[in-house]
Every structure is written in structure tokens, then in C-alpha cells.
Amino acid sequence: MPQAGIKYGAQIPGPDYDQIAEDAEKAVHKALGVIRTEDLLSRRPEDLVKKTAEIIRQADAQIAVHLTERDEALAHLRYYEPHRRLHRTAGLSPIGFRNAVARAVLGDQKANLPDATSNEGLAQVAQELGVKRLDDARAQLLEAAPIVAGAQNCREIAMRYMQQVILALSEPPYSWSPQEIADHAGMPRDTVYSIRRVARKRRDS
Predict the structure, then answer these.
(1) Rounded distance, CA 145 to CA 89, Å?
(2) Neighbouring residues of 200: CB distance < 8 A, sequence distance ≥ 6
(3) Domain assignment of residue 168, yes or no
(4) Where are the alpha helices (DSSP H) in 33-177?
(5) Does 167 fall in a domain?
(6) Is residue 176 a part of any domain in this protein?
(7) Which of 126, 150, 151 is nearest to 137 (CA)?
(8) pLDDT tens sequence for the chain (205 residues)
(9) Would you call 129 exposed, middle or buried from its count of C-beta atoms within 10 A (0-12, 13-18, 19+)?
(10) Who's near 62: CB < 8 A, 6+ residues apart?
(11) For residues 111 and 102, is the Cβ–Cβ distance under 8 A?
(12) Is residue 102 assigned to a domain?
């Protein structure tokens, strides 16, 4: 929320995150070879588990590259060039925005962020914390944020499908063990256990 004593620039227009989410769903469906979610029922689960695993790996790789860029841009704008509603520009909730800045500044998204009551005070705090100054934080944010959002959407959608697929492979007529699923999909066995547990809990709730 805006703080008294701080002068804010106008909200930076951000991308259409609803459209990014729609595009992510279409991209996942295309990668899985389906048009609608219902079409998954006609696909072989042993094929789908490999495809969903690859989608998640690619999404994680994109997030790993661009998340820090997004968070550092938000930290710069939070302290050196305050703007209204930065969370909306980044496609985040207010809490998500706070966590992103804390992660960039303090290395811990749950850490308490130091604050100030003036723009000069914010800049002073930033310098003491070692907040990186960027030449064009706005451009960096607008480039990185939609990439992160798209990758996170793809990951979330693929993970929902993977839960269904792992559950199907774990039960008759397949009855694959977590190790067999892990070896087939190229993922850690502990991850398969965790995903299967969540899928069973969701099914039985």
C-alpha cells in the first residue's frame, strides 16, 4: 500500500496476465497433443507423464533464469523509483510482491523489509542493504515478469495433469511403482511420491 511521505510515479502499464495464462494453457495442451482437458482421457498415461515432466523442466529452467531479473527490478523500483501498484505491473498479489522484494534484497522472502518515510530515506535504506541499482528497471521488469508468469502458469497446469497421470499409473491396470514412474519420466522418486500423495488426497477429499 502507498505510504505517507513517499512520492510515487504513476502505475507502469503491465502486460495482459489473463492472456498470458490463456496462452500458457494452450501451449501446454499443444505440447501434450490435446485441444481440451477432456482429451487427456484418450492419451496414454505413460506418454503423458513424460511430456508433463518435460514441460515442468522447461518451465523451471525459464523461472530460474528470469525470476532473479524480475525480483531485482522490483527491488530497484521499490526503493529507488517508487511507482504505484507495482504488484499489478508484475502480475503479483501485494504479498507476492513483498515476498519477491524480500527475496531479492535479503535472500529470504519471509524476512521483514526495512522501510522509510521519504524517498530519500528509501534510497538510503537501499544503499545500506546493497540493493542493486539498474539502468532501466522498468524495461527489465516488463521483459522478465511476463516470462516468469507464463512459465509459472505452464508449470501449474502441467503439474495438475501430472498428478492425474501419476495417480492413473499407480493403480490398476498399470500399478507402476514410484520408482518405475520416476525412471520412465526422468524425475526423482521422492517427487513422484509427493505428487502421488497430493493426487490421492485431492481425489479422496
Answers:
(1) 8
(2) 167
(3) no
(4) 45-79, 86-90, 94-106, 119-129, 137-170
(5) no
(6) no
(7) 126
(8) 577 789 999 999 999 999 999 999 999 999 999 988 888 878 999 999 999 999 999 999 999 999 999 999 999 999 999 999 999 999 999 999 999 999 999 999 999 999 899 999 999 999 999 999 999 999 999 999 999 999 999 999 999 999 999 999 999 999 999 999 999 999 999 999 999 999 999 999 8
(9) middle
(10) 147, 148, 150, 151
(11) yes
(12) yes
Strand positions, DSSP E, the chain: none
Cβ count within 10 A of residue 76: 23
C-beta neighbour count of 100 within 10 angstroms: 25
With contact defined as beta carbons under 8 Å apart, do 205 and 199 qualify?
no
Cα 14 versus chain centre, distance: 17
| Chain mean position to CA 188 | 21
Q: State how many domains the chain has.
A: 1
Alpha-carbon span 162 to 199, nearest angstrom: 9
Q: Which domain holds residue 51?
A: 17-154
HSE, side-chain direction, 13 A CA sphere, residue 196: 20
pTM: 0.94
